[in-house]
Amino acid sequence: MLEAWKAGYCRVDDIEKLFSRAIKVVLRTEAESKAFSLAFQRWKQQTISGKAGESLENGSIVACKSKFDTKIEASSAQMYFHYYGQLLHQQNMLQDFVRTGTYYAAVMENRADFEGKVVVDVGAGSGILSLFAAQAGAKHVYAVEASEMVEHAQRLISGNPSFGQRITIIKGKVEEVELPEKADILISEPMGTLLVNERMLESYVIARDRFLAPDGKMFPTTGRIHMAPFSDEYLYVEMANKSLFWQQHNFFGVDLTPLHGSAFDGYFSQSPWWMHLIQDC
């Protein structure tokens, strides 16, 4: 039985969620419920992995989400691309001379890998890595960038015609764009905080699977996370002192001590860097 609902709340995995429109499906038996769930999951997987125009058991796919859309919400993606579409942020990255200098050295010291080759710059940003690849003798560079930074990158590349004539800027996500040929080299700056933050590495791997020739190379190829435990007595005391507020027995006539343990645990469940940020603000 199907019932159309216009607005209300529903509970999913013990979490109450608000909806504006919905269809309630009432199933008669547990076996019927399991069969429906399996069929729905199979259909959902087909729509995610399929392409527009492909046939399904009960119809065809008119439009489908890309792999990028399945890993990040639309609102977060909009903020992400807005952030990277600003010249101010690109300047901050370019002025990180360790980062920029390391990439420049990696390209120039491996000219043999770039000379006469097709290069794809994944998440090109300002286009600086594309220009490095062209300087190293690349036959052609495809600079793929999804943010509005493509307009600035185009002007920068056009302003360096000796290299820019071998660079084509393509606006879009690497999960969705199509290229006219396979790449001999992939280059990108996909590392986030603690390597995996922002999930750019996933897009880098997708670009490898979609565009890289079987014997192609990637710059970078590997990544490592180094972690080590440490003890900071001063930081411990600073965090512990924040919970002393809850040790008051007479706060306007109220004993706060029953909440001290929970407050203590709460302070130590947060990042100390975040706590410093709040204090500094």
UniProtKB/TrEMBL annotation:
SUPFAM superfamilies attached to this UniProt entry: S-adenosyl-L-methionine-dependent methyltransferases (SSF53335)
Listed EC numbers: 2.1.1.319
GO molecular function, one term: protein-arginine omega-N monomethyltransferase activity
One Pfam family linked to the record: PH_PRMT_N
BP terms from Gene Ontology: methylation
Annotated transmembrane regions: none
UniProt keyword Metal-binding, yes or no: no
Keyword Methyltransferase found: yes
Catalytic activity: L-arginyl-[protein] + 2 S-adenosyl-L-methionine = N(omega),N(omega)-dimethyl-L-arginyl-[protein] + 2 S-adenosyl-L-homocysteine + 2 H(+)
Domain of life: Eukaryota
Domain (Probable histone-arginine methyltransferase CARM1-like N-terminal PH) ranges: 16-45
InterPro entries in the record: Arg_MeTrfase, CARM1-like_PH, SAM-dependent_MTases_sf
PROSITE patterns referenced in this protein's UniProt entry, alphabetically: SAM_MT_PRMT
Record's keyword terms, sorted: Methyltransferase, S-adenosyl-L-methionine, Transcription, Transcription regulation, Transferase
Protein name: type I protein arginine methyltransferase
